Amino acid sequence: MSLKACRVIDLPKITDPRGSLTFVEGARHVPFDIKRVFYLYDIPEGVDRGGHALKRCHQFLIAISGSFDVVLDDGIEKRQVHLSQPYRGLYIPPLIWREMENFSSGSVCFALASEFYSAEDYYRDYSEFLRMVGQYQS
Ligand code: TYD
Asked: Is 39 touching ligand 1 by the criterion CB < 6 Å?
């Protein structure tokens, strides 16, 4: 999968004097049906997360609070995306390695996923990931 398939998507944002509201509808605002939601919070300063690629699962990451960086890697090139707005998310298709870093204090990463959790869906070994994407590219 090429890095070009990863993209930042702006979500609807409805603001009135009471504040703002953003919503996400599966297969409308994100390019997959949503089967699972998870979120990362209480992240200690200086800690990195991610460090994996998924075989089948599509994900969409939102900095619901605070900010963080996502480093995307398709095995050939890398790109860093800074997320800092609750109405903007990053779509990551399968077979993209991602590292998440520079979490601001109190930040929360909200994630939507196309699949239920499965440990078998993960590449957690970077060399194995490179071998796998190399096979696809050759
Ligand atoms: P992990 O994938 O290491 O988190 P991150 O990539 O965000 O740094 O997940 C941490 C633990 O949580 C690991 O034991 C797997 C488990 N987990 C679930 O049980 N269900 C889930 O939906 C997710 C995302 C993780």
From this structure: no
Instruction: Mark whether 52 is an active-site residue.
Output: yes
70 lines ligand 1 (CB under 6 A): no
User: What is the rounded (10 degree) CA torsion for 73, 75, 76, 81?
Assistant: 0
Tens-digit pLDDT profile for the chain (138 aa)? Answer: 899 999 999 999 999 999 999 999 999 999 999 999 999 999 999 999 999 999 999 999 999 999 999 999 999 999 999 999 999 999 999 999 999 999 999 999 999 999 999 999 999 999 999 999 987 665
The model scores a pTM over 0.85: yes
Cβ of 88 less than 6 Å from ligand 1 = no
Characterize the bridge pairing of strands 59-65 and 88-92. antiparallel
